[in-house]
Amino acid sequence: MPTIFQERGFRFFFYSNEHLPKHIHVIGKSGEVKIELNSLTLIYNFNMKKKDLKVVLEIVTQNRFFFLRKWDEFQKE
Prior knowledge:
By secondary structure, this protein is of the alpha+beta class. It is built from 1 helix and 5 strands. A 5-stranded antiparallel β-sheet has the order 1-2-3-4-5, covered by helices on one side.
């Protein structure tokens, strides 16, 4: 599960056997979330606090195209 990005105590990554839709996993001290990258929709939230989720969504929004590019690069390997 390669780490793609780290910021403000959150780790953004993909699993090695990922599937569509294109998404990113994020782990922080309060939990884990999975966010669909095209629509920026929360797919699941496992215990992440609301304030942390807000920060994560801001980071994903700001870096969405970077994550999409990394997804495509990762799938080609």
